[in-house]
Amino acid sequence: MIIQAGVALCAQVLMGSASAQAAPDFPTRTVRIVSGLAAGSSMDLVARTISPKLAELWGQAVIVENRAGAAGNIAAEHVARADDGHTLLIAQNAITVSASLYPRLKYNLRRDLKAVSQVTAMPHVVVVTPTLPVQNLQDFIALAKSKPNQLNFSSAGIGNADDMAAELFASMAHLQMMHVPYTGGSQALTAAAAGDVQLYFPGLPVSLPLVKAGKVKALAVTSATRSPALPDVPTMEEAGLPGYQTVLWYGVYAPASMPDATVKRISADIQKALQMPDVKEKLSGAGIDVVGSTPEQFQAFTNAEIDRWAAIVRERNLKVD
């Protein structure tokens, strides 16, 4: 009887422990979502769209904190070191590029951060300066091949998503072009509109107004299917570059010290927020597709992206001092 009572008591303790792990006490205070891009960016829009919804679900304030610089690595390093249990990171493609591009990175993405959920995805738009004598992607490829290292493409900085989209294009089309990095995406897009560079791969939301105004010419979108926002613009495959596909994605990460049960709770609530009609309407209106994924799915996606871009970094001999 004593043994049976002891077993029963142990079972109750274990069940209580499992229950506590399944329903973590989170959050107990304000939650910070740290962004590696400046206020006003598409990623900032996404973060500030879902943060009030998470605040409603959690009953605690959720604030967005911008720590821009170094392709998002300043923000990533800050969150990797956070130990308060209430700090999250929203990041984009560049975080998976940094793993191979920066030799002295002060954090390890696989070791120091946990994937929580991919939040959104959107295509890049291949835009050229309107005075360039090309009508489609094949025209541009032919022109670039006839003028090796004479055409320029802009980006928001080495290793950013727009840079890597262009590097992938140059690799697959066998082009030699010059890279002109700017301090931000708006400057890179302005340079393309002004003719200071010939090519740019901006995200759909920021490029849409200039495309519709005729200030840049859209040759293709980089997603697998056409964008409803630009239904007349072909995909890269349709434009004559089979196999090319990449999207600008945003996702949430947590410090490695955060318990798995808490990570799963946050992931589930992010997915709930993304399915709210007003959230979907606001983001889709900006040309942004909601995703939502489990921690396991997003970790697998992150690992695949690290490997994919490491190969491009090696092939293109990209370096950051």
What is the percentage of strand-forming residues? Answer: 15-25%
Structural class: alpha/beta
Give the termini distance in whole angstroms. Answer: 70 Å
CATH class of the largest domain: Alpha Beta
- Rounded radius of gyration (Å): 22 Å
Largest sheet: 6 strands, mixed
Mean pLDDT: 91
Shape: globular
Strand and helix order: HEHEHEHHEEHEHEHEHEEHHEH
Low-confidence stretches: 1-23
Number of domains: 2
Please tally the β strands and state the result. Answer: 11
Spatial strand arrangement across the major sheet: 2-1-3-10-4-11
Number of helices: 12
Per CATH, the architecture of the largest domain is 3-Layer(aba) Sandwich
CATH superfamily of the largest domain: Bordetella uptake gene, domain 1
**Helicity range:** 40-55%
CATH topology of the largest domain: D-Maltodextrin-Binding Protein, domain 2
What can you see in these coordinates?
- The chain is of the alpha/beta class and about 325 residues long.
- The protein has 2 domains: about 160 residues, D-Maltodextrin-Binding Protein, domain 2 (3-Layer(aba) Sandwich); about 120 residues, D-Maltodextrin-Binding Protein, domain 2 (3-Layer(aba) Sandwich), CATH 3.40.190.
- The chain has 12 helices and 11 strands.
- Helix 7 links the parallel strand 6 and strand 7.
- The longest helix has 22 residues.
